[in-house]
Design brief:
The structure is a homodimer. By secondary structure, the first copy, chain A, is an alpha/beta fold. Chain A has three domains: about 1-135, Rossmann fold, CATH 3.40.50; about 165-275, no CATH class; about 300-475, 3-Layer(aba) Sandwich (Rossmann fold), CATH 3.40.50.970. Helix content of chain A is about 30%, strand content about 15%. The first copy, chain A, has helices spanning about 1-5, 20-35, 45-60, 90, 110-120, 175-185, 215-225, 270-275, 300-310, 325-330, 350-360, 370-375, 380-385, 405-410, 420, 435-440, 450-465; strands at about 40-45, 65-70, 100, 125-130, 165-170, 190-195, 200-205, 210, 230-235, 255-260, 315-320, 335-340, 365-370, 390-400, 445-450, 470-475. Chain A has a seven-stranded mixed beta sheet, sandwiched between helices. The first copy, chain A, has a five-stranded parallel beta sheet with strand order 8-6-5-9-10. In chain A, helix 2 (about 20-35) packs parallel to helix 3 and helix 9 (about 300-310) packs parallel to helix 10 (about 325-330). The longest helix of chain A is centred in the first third of the chain and has 18 residues, at about 45-60. Chain A is globular, with a radius of gyration of 23 Å. At the A-B interface, helix 1, helix 3, helix 13, helix 14 and helix 15 of A face helix 1, helix 3, helix 13, helix 14 and helix 15 of B.
């Protein structure tokens, strides 16, 4: 309560109300993916933190800096088993690089500064600070000062690799200068791949777009087939999302030598620069063309329409799940954009990350491409979009099913769906009406059942400012 | 996937799809509060479990038996840092009495039986079982058999207490025979109090209704003032919900001797029986009277209308927060009902617990009394109500504000709300439209802005079967 009240006296800090902590944790992730500065979340004891864990897991995998301020019972109250009493340190543990339980109110300022510094350590991490309620109504020491983060260290050694090596770039290397170096590597004859689950990837025309590792092991292994060496730069040896009965987890060929040019916490940009490759151009992707509005509504035509209509410097937040690959293949032809991929696989990332990205970049259009099933995890995000007037267009790919599970059912060799088990993946009975759900939270919404309707609605969303939602009916 | 598929072959197990794990965990809680048998949840790795933690916290405080089946990566895949990889044991820790990581697929059946037995140990606990994906596609051993739980042990000794002692009853003692003994205690001249945060309380006419300990320390301390002895029966020494600058945490007077007749895991019913008190009647509460429909819409008139219209043997799930006390004071006059209170203070309990109670008791009317702010935590519950045709009437007490925080702001001595901090508790801009939100998930809904409208709508809800929602506008 004191912290909330202090917002009136510290206008430098912007408070953004989220109706559920899973929105706050995802928004903090989206904010820092765009700014590379940590947002702070204010959470209420263990259960408040717990509601944010799934998106904190995604943020952890994205190596996003976040500072969690977790309220704890007042010091004298902690000895009792009150309803909200719980082991907050244990709630924080799975997602925090460090959890600090403030032990002395006089240290509040200096500890806060340390926590911020720790969160900003390259490439970024989540730090949780547990603060007893009475520390808010007690006299504290001086405010601290968080110094700018140090540059990440250069790797100690440089591995040898031959001319046929492939490179896998991850971490912060899939934007700006990292992509310039990627283009140089490609021009020098190396195959260059993009880590699938990174915080942020620049894409679109004018950018060198390295091949993104595919989701399923078969296609991913095909991408890497024949490689004798794989050089990792701010990336780990690539593995499949899940393990399956008849697939290897590792995606590189068994006889491929995997070497690290820069580890996750090392200066990959410096390591790429040190290779001394000359500047290089690349063959750009062809320009997007708006499809004929009378074409059938398919994931391909939807993707093509998005690509043609997307304004330059848009930010795309992805949680399309099964609809993703055909759409993104088209979107690659759009004007320059930032793409915020799924990182940790916790469902409910897309909408909250869109909230955070829009708070971070008020002058850029944010487009959330979201599946129906995953949308229902953190749909409260829409209210914050309306409250803050965020410039976010959300497209719901509504196929009325956890479609990805049809594929997983086959892949795991399970017997398939009968009537009763089919009920566990079917999202009809009743159908979700995303137009009503969106309007219920103050975000204007429309439904598109044809490509023409989608083009009209999406074009309007790109033209006008402010939140809106388009429910796309793509039941096959 | 194999587990889901197996639902086709094991009709004894009913699968209920929830759109968010926080609904599943709360529904498992509600189910077991009514049946005292554990429901099983099926959760997807650490983040899937994490989404359920807040309501698992509530279930833990309610001492509800639950069996969590948590999927883990296949054994060979666990060594890699895949997107969903995480420390599942750590995610389970804060809410599980025991976490079992299945180490050998042949033991699946016997370990499952042990897990169920452990969950059912009096008074009930949450046990989590982590199962690697490949155990689903491997040959397993025989199915196990979970024996019926043993009776809880009688307390080893009986404390002495004088004639002016007060009794605090909790655990499973606020239903059935426990309330009969409570009436005997009252008739014998003892003051009898009900633990505030218990799993289930029977109320209404024809039931002895012990005084429920108040939420805030001041009124709670006034209830217990003057007591020289407090006898705990399946309850702990009562403490306030939060600690405050100028209040003691303990609610009993400082000079009150607190003794335990039966601990949380002991046979409180047996201990009460052993007191040998004679059967006794009690003065019943007066019958509820439907208020004049032209009366103003207030929490008191709403409560009186609910009391008069509630059919016998209804189940009330409470998460009204600040609206609760005046409403429940009226509802006490209704015909016999079960009341499922807030137990752990994790927000988002009411609607999911209503789902579980309705699955458990298909022939009884379930009424969820829910605040606007808390409703938005687990609103996805409505879809499951529609899907399963559950007989649940949800009343949203919409005061467009986290009203309880107005009180907490004063109590903590914080400076109060300016414009910017007020934005953190204000739920207007935009207003939430619960009618649209409900219809968006397939539950018919209406809005009541007058008492007459509420009476008409609530009466219809009591008369007809199936889910419906009433948004009550109670902005003051």
């Amino acid at each position: 309560m004191h912290f909330v009240s202090a917002l009136d006296r510290v206008p430098e800090m912007r408070g953004v109300l989220c109706l559920f902590e899973g929105v706050a944790s995802g928004a903090a992730d989206g904010y820092a993916r765009m700014t590379r500065r940590p947002a702070a979340t204010l959470l209420h004891l263990g259960p408040g933190l717990a509601n944010g864990l799934a998106n904190f897991h995604n943020a952890k995998k994205a190596r996003t800096p976040i500072v969690n301020l977790v309220g704890e019972h007042s010091t004298k109250h902690q000895q009792y088993d009150a309803p909200l009493s719980g082991d907050i340190d244990a709630f924080c543990a799975p997602i925090s690089a460090k959890t600090v339980r403030l032990e002395n109110v006089f240290d509040m300022g200096s500890v806060a500064a340390e926590v911020i510094s720790e969160a900003r350590r390259y490439p970024g991490r989540i730090v949780s600070m547990i603060i007893a309620a009475d520390y808010s109504w007690s006299e504290s020491g001086a405010a601290g000062f968080a110094a700018a983060p140090a540059r990440p260290p250069m790797p100690a050694s440089r591995p040898a690799f031959g001319p046929g090596a492939g490179f896998l770039l991850g971490g912060h290397l899939l934007t700006g200068k990292g992509l310039d170096y990627a283009a140089r590597l490609a021009a020098a004859g190396y195959k260059v791949f993009a880590d699938r689950n990174t915080a942020r990837v620049e894409g679109g025309r004018g950018r060198f777009q390295p091949e993104r590792i595919a989701y399923f092991p078969g296609p991913a292994q095909a991408q890497l087939a024949g490689l004798k060496e794989l050089v990792l730069v701010e990336a780990k040896n690539p593995v499949s999302f899940f393990g399956y009965p008849n697939d290897a987890s590792l995606l590189a060929p068994p006889d491929c030598r995997v070497v690290t040019l820069a580890g996750i916490e090392e200066d990959g940009l410096g390591a790429l620069e040190a290779l001394g490759l000359p500047e290089a151009g690349f063959a750009d992707v062809p320009e997007a063309v708006l499809p004929d509005a009378d074409s059938p509504l398919t994931l391909e035509t939807i993707g093509a329409a998005i690509a043609a209509l997307l304004p330059e410097d848009s930010i795309i937040c992805d949680e399309m799940i099964s609809s993703g690959p055909p759409v993104m293949e088209q979107v690659a032809r759009a004007k320059r954009y930032d793409f915020l991929p799924v990182t940790g696989g916790s469902i409910g990332q897309g909408l909250p990350v869109g909230v955070g990205a829009a708070v971070a970049c008020p002058d850029r259009k944010v487009v959330v491409l979201e599946a129906d099933g995953s949308a229902m995890y953190t749909l409260q995000s829409l209210w914050t979009m309306a409250r803050e007037g965020l410039d976010v267009v959300t497209v719901i790919f509504n196929n009325r099913r956890y479609r990805i599970l049809d594929i997983e059912m086959r892949r795991t060799g399970a017997p398939g769906f009968g009537d009763r088990s089919n009920d566990m993946v079917d999202l009809t009975r009743p159908n979700l009406d995303f137009v009503k759900l969106s309007e219920g939270m103050g975000v204007p919404a429309t439904r598109a059942t044809t490509l023409r309707e989608f083009i009209d609605q999406f074009a309007a969303g790109m033209r006008e400012k402010g939140p809106r939602l388009i429910e796309l009916e793509i039941v096959q």
